[in-house]
Amino acid sequence: MFFGLTIEKLLLIGVIAAFVVGPERLPHYAEMLARGTRRAREWLATAKTRMKDEMGEDFDDVDWRTLDPRQYDPRRIIREALLDDAPVPLAGVATAAAAPSGPATEAVSPADRAPVASPFRAGEIPPFDAEAT
Q1: What does the domain layout of the chain look like in residue ranges?
Q2: In angstroms, what CA-CA distances link 9 with 4, 16, 20, 32, 49?
Q3: Model pTM?
């Protein structure tokens, strides 16, 4: 849990620190460590409280494990993005569904229908941006 440090390693670091600091200054440094630890806990508690206040009721609904950067797998993200079932807009489906059906509408030929407005005139070449492609 301690970023890969085991109890034995922490104990060894403590013994080395006791020899380096010395018995006279060791209580002072231990007090400073305890004070720093308390400040860090208070800071984390304050940050969590502020986050809950700012997010409101949504704070409890968040699945924090999914936001863990260690869960990042680029292959999974790309696979999910490619397999996403986003709706594809179909040009003729919306107009066909909205148009009334029946014998009166079937007699209208495609040439008799109203032309679709185009932003370009006939024969006009649309602009091309070579830097954007």
Answers
A1: 9-58
A2: 10, 11, 16, 21, 34
A3: 0.39
